[in-house]
Fold this protein.
Amino acid sequence: MKLNSHFAKLCLFSVSSIAPLVHAGISFEAKAASEAFYRGIQEADVNWQSSLELGFGDFYLGAWGLSPEEGRSAPDLFNERYEIYTGYGWALADLVGLDVGAIRGLDPHDDEFTEAYVGLYAEFGTIAPSIYIYNDIDTDQWTAEAEATLSVPLNLFPIDTTARLGLIDGDVDYSYFEVDLVYPIRLGDLAKLSLGLHYTDNDFGIGVPDNSLYGSASVRLNF
């Protein structure tokens, strides 16, 4: 994920609130997952993730980390991953916004990277679509990712469904498709528990698993 998850691409100025933030905000999330994927490629088996995000008006910055619980030795060789990111968002219309920013990837066992991105996001009732373009400044790899989230506010069983399609243009060209089903449980005014079921698929080729189904649980605090 970067920010898969979630990296939460929109961070503190989410599509659920296009209006600019008046005051600074802080958000912290801790997640446990049975697997982790970044753009369709497996990053870990059982793992822990955490993120911290700060927003100041339309400006935001944050940090995200992934720690594998297993699979650190051969043949998997999963490693920790860390990312810091910053960006700025503009409201282009009542329901549409523009997001630009940069990501710095820090991997203790691999090459670091710097990525710039620009995206459009919107909210139309219960549907929140977005499209983002990423460019790795070091390798000139390009990624295009389109996403749409449908929030169904059922009284007893609300569910957020996200579908995501990505195209990679780099040393290896491939595409990936992901679906997230998330059941949110509000824990008061400032906290939320999310239980997720996720599916991912890719056409990377021989040597890379092409699909997986896995689960996650996370707690998010907003201040």
The longest strand covers residues 174-186.
